[in-house]
């Protein structure tokens, strides 16, 4: 089987149900049937199977996701070497900045938060480990793009597009590539209001043997990042953090 082989429809539908349940706190069979354009009996069979496996809970006819998925996500994170290496450095970065900080990876052309730590000054944005967003809308995603070869960057742009999440999001490939070149020159990235209006990000890449494996990002209110001295101070701290993680990842047992 290769990437062009059509997916198994039964498995695809099961995950479509999980995706719909992620959007809602709970939902009934009739509504799921309507949204999936499937008979209620078919939807019920899928739900029954997922409930038997622990992924779905039935609360008086309303279905919701079970915490089995949280267990899976937790295991994935705690088995990840980058998480263990980065966590103490993120804690130190939070102590210095008081802001929301995260270590991030690229997966399937998207930006994914692997782990985050919150400080006293953190914005409340509903960010959580595992959240996935368009990679071009976030400085911590763009510093990873800046470290990828041109062929990979072009492939991500072609497959994922450059959607506008806010009116400030870069949606032109030439403009994005110019920003990536600037990131390479200065060693860090900054964006304002491109993913969330009112939110700014300062980020630096984590590189091991000339390969970008992730990034560190500091999330701040946009108005604080307009102050050049503050912005440069955050940039120095985030670069220092990313460099320490890079070295520790390479040489820790």
Automatic annotation (TrEMBL):
Keywords tagged on the record: DNA-binding, Transcription, Transcription regulation
Gene Ontology biological process terms from the UniProt entry: regulation of DNA-templated transcription
IclR-ED domain: residues covered: 68-251
GO MF term set: DNA binding
Stretches that traverse the bilayer: none
InterPro entries (UniProt xref): GAF-like_dom_sf, HTH_MetabolicPath_Reg, Tscrpt_reg_IclR_C, Tscrpt_reg_IclR_N, WH-like_DNA-bd_sf, WH_DNA-bd_sf
Protein name: IclR family transcriptional regulator
Record organism: Haloferax namakaokahaiae
């Amino acid at each position: 089987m290769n990437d062009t082989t059509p997916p198994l429809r039964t498995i695809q539908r099961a995950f479509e149900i999980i995706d719909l349940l992620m959007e809602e706190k709970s939902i009934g069979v009739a509504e799921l049937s309507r949204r999936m354009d499937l008979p209620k009996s078919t939807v019920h069979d899928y739900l029954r199977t997922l409930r038997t496996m622990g992924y779905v809970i039935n609360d008086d006819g309303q279905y919701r996701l079970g915490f089995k998925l949280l267990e899976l996500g937790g295991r994935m994170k705690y088995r990840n070497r980058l998480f263990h290496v980065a966590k103490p450095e993120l804690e130190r970065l939070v102590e210095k900045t008081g802001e929301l900080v995260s270590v991030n990876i690229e997966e399937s052309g998207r930006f994914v938060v692997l782990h985050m730590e919150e400080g006293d000054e953190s914005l409340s944005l509903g960010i959580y480990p595992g959240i996935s967003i368009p990679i071009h809308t976030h400085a911590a995603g763009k510093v990873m793009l800046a470290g990828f070869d041109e062929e990979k960057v072009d492939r991500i742009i072609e497959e994922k597009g450059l959607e506008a999440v806010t009116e400030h999001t870069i949606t032109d490939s030439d403009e994005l590539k110019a920003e990536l070149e600037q990131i390479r020159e200065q060693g860090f990235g900054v964006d304002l209001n491109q993913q969330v209006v009112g939110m700014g990000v300062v980020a630096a890449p984590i590189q091991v043997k000339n390969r970008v494996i992730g990034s560190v990002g500091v999330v701040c209110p946009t108005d604080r990042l307009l102050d050049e001295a503050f912005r440069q101070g955050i940039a120095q701290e985030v670069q220092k953090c990313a460099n320490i993680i890079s070295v520790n990842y390479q040489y820790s047992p």
